[in-house]
Specification:
This protein is α/β, with parallel strands linked by helices. The chain contains eight helices and seven strands. Helix 1 crosses helix 2 and helix 6 packs across helix 7.
């Protein structure tokens, strides 16, 4: 399948590293002009340079803004014009016993993982609908369906994101705009390496620690390994394309078969 995103403009929130950076890189590789985002100006500029190193001809813009706040979203909107592709990737996670999660922590997870996406969709979706084309993707997780005991607050926010996706997809019905969730499974990122260390100990070699983590904490994975970030990026590229014109309102699984169900 030949996917050409030339002439399209994309924003990937939380793309200074990890899955977001990989998504931005794959979108640029397919011809899209890409806006990368992070809280730190230095790290965001470094991410833009990393995309250019992978894709020398890439059209990349770096915008530093904390999208977990309404003020940060306004800062970004002031710098970024209309978009064809919006990828809400920004998110936080961490292990904590559910009975120890206080109200402030619940609010922080909701602000970062849910409201950051809602604010950007609310701003950019109307223009997409008027122009008759647009692609919105919310990066969710297998944790939206398989609530992880070690981070219930994270799982709840990703479950909410599935409902947000479905609701905005209905709002865009018949306009040529699609809205989907991408349900990423356990993925190899620096943050996940730290998370694995918290759960199985940081004194093991990485390959052994990864195997132990998958065996003990993600035993239903059918690929029995962590997903690499570009593998998530490939799905986002497809959903951004004209070829994916009839896929909307969905929870698209890129989870290595982790969710033990024939439906999400």
């Amino acid at each position: 399948m030949d996917i050409d995103l030339g002439g399209r403009r994309a924003l990937v929130s939380g793309s200074s590293q990890g899955i977001g950076l990989a998504i931005a890189t794959e979108l640029a590789r397919s011809g899209a002009a890409v806006v990368v985002n992070g809280r730190s100006q230095e790290k965001t500029e470094q991410a833009a340079d990393a995309v250019r190193q992978e894709v020398p001809a890439a059209d990349v813009m770096a915008v530093a803004a904390d999208l977990a706040t309404a003020a940060g979203a306004d800062e970004l909107k002031a710098q970024v014009g209309e978009l064809d592709i919006l990828v809400n990737n920004l998110g936080i996670f961490g292990a904590k016993p559910v009975l120890e999660i206080d109200d402030d922590e619940w609010r922080r997870y909701f602000e970062v993982n849910v409201l950051s996406a809602v604010r950007l969709i609310r701003h950019y979706l109307p223009g997409m609908m008027e122009r008759g084309f647009g692609r919105v993707m919310n990066i969710a997780s297998d944790s939206a369906v398989v609530t992880p005991l070690e981070m219930v607050h994270y799982g709840v926010t990703k479950t909410a994101l599935l409902a947000v996706t479905r609701g905005f997809a209905k709002a865009a019905a018949g306009t040529g705009v699609t809205v989907n969730s991408v349900m990423a499974g356990p993925t190899h990122t620096p943050g996940v390496e730290e998370f694995v260390g918290e759960l199985v100990g940081d004194d093991l070699p990485w390959d052994e620690a990864q195997r132990q983590f998958m065996k003990e904490h993600r035993p239903y994975s059918l690929i029995q390994r962590l997903i690499e970030p570009p593998e998530i990026g490939n799905m986002v590229v497809y959903l951004s394309s004209t070829q994916a014109s009839v896929t909307t309102g969905g929870a698209i699984r890129v989870d290595g078969g982790y969710i033990d169900s024939i439906l999400p």
